């Protein structure tokens, strides 16, 4: 039913799982003995984060934030609204933001600066998708699974007006769906 709105599958479920396994092994090595806090940026990060943590073989803690910058549209407004902050003190802790996508970069740049101001020991970013053509600020992920073209994508946590998050892959949404 949802597939009728997808122009093209960009990244398959199997490709996502393989990338999460590879990244999980890297994070196991990089964070061994550091007990990092993985901060999922809700809602889009949930499927990726759930897959990723299965492949990390060292102690980690999980926390979540609700941060919005899209407000129902197809591009970031640049206005960052923190609706839910992390539940624990991050001072002296290693923070790894888990994101579904880095597009303009404004949200993550603001979050990274916020956590550095809170005296985190380190602040890094792991993202399923990187869309460098959409970047409006200078920021790079420390860990990227896939670099994608400047297309409006949905699935595997990414949405259009809260729909399509449950697709098991990342696909390009047909333009007629969001230009009606």
UniProtKB/TrEMBL annotation:
Biological classification of the source: Bacteria, Bacillati, Bacillota, Bacilli, Lactobacillales
Originating organism: Streptococcus gordonii
Subcellular location: Cytoplasm
A Gene Ontology term for the protein's cellular component: cytosol
MF terms (GO), sorted A to Z: guanine phosphoribosyltransferase activity; hypoxanthine phosphoribosyltransferase activity; magnesium ion binding; nucleotide binding
CDD domains (alphabetical): PRTases_typeI
InterPro entries to which the protein is assigned, alphabetical: HGPRT, Hxn_phspho_trans, PRTase-like, PRTase_dom
Reactions performed catalytically: IMP + diphosphate = hypoxanthine + 5-phospho-alpha-D-ribose 1-diphosphate; GMP + diphosphate = guanine + 5-phospho-alpha-D-ribose 1-diphosphate
Keyword Zinc: no
Protein name: Hypoxanthine phosphoribosyltransferase
Principal subcellular localisation of the protein: cytoplasm
Its job: Purine salvage pathway enzyme that catalyzes the transfer of the ribosyl-5-phosphate group from 5-phospho-alpha-D-ribose 1-diphosphate (PRPP) to the N9 position of the 6-oxopurines hypoxanthine and guanine to form the corresponding ribonucleotides IMP (inosine 5'-monophosphate) and GMP (guanosine 5'-monophosphate), with the release of PPi.
Pfam families the record matches: Pribosyltran
Pathway, per record: Purine metabolism; GMP biosynthesis via salvage pathway; GMP from guanine: step 1/1; Purine metabolism; IMP biosynthesis via salvage pathway; IMP from hypoxanthine: step 1/1
Cofactor(s) annotated in UniProt: Mg(2+)
Keywords: Cytoplasm, Glycosyltransferase, Magnesium, Metal-binding, Nucleotide-binding, Purine salvage, Transferase
Similarity section: Belongs to the purine/pyrimidine phosphoribosyltransferase family.
Span of domain Phosphoribosyltransferase: 13-160
GO biological process, one term: GMP salvage
EC number assigned by the record: 2.4.2.8
């Amino acid at each position: 039913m949802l597939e009728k709105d997808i122009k093209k599958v960009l990244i398959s479920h199997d490709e996502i799982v393989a990338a999460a396994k590879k990244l999980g092994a890297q994070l196991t090595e990089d964070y061994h003995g550091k007990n990092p806090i993985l901060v999922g940026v809700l809602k889009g990060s949930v499927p990726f984060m759930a897959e990723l943590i299965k492949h990390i073989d060292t102690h980690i803690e999980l926390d979540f934030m609700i941060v919005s910058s899209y407000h129902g549209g197809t591009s970031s407004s640049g206005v960052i609204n923190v609706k839910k902050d992390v539940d624990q003190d991050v001072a002296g802790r290693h923070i790894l933001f888990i994101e579904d996508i880095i597009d303009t970069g404004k949200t993550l740049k603001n979050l990274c600066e916020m956590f550095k101001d809170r005296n985190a020991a380190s602040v890094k970013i792991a993202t399923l998708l990187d869309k460098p053509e959409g970047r409006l600020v200078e920021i790079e992920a420390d860990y990227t699974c896939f670099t994608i073209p400047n297309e409006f994508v949905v699935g595997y946590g990414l949405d259009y007006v809260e729909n399509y998050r449950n697709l098991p892959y990342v696909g390009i949404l047909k333009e007629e769906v969001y230009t009606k």
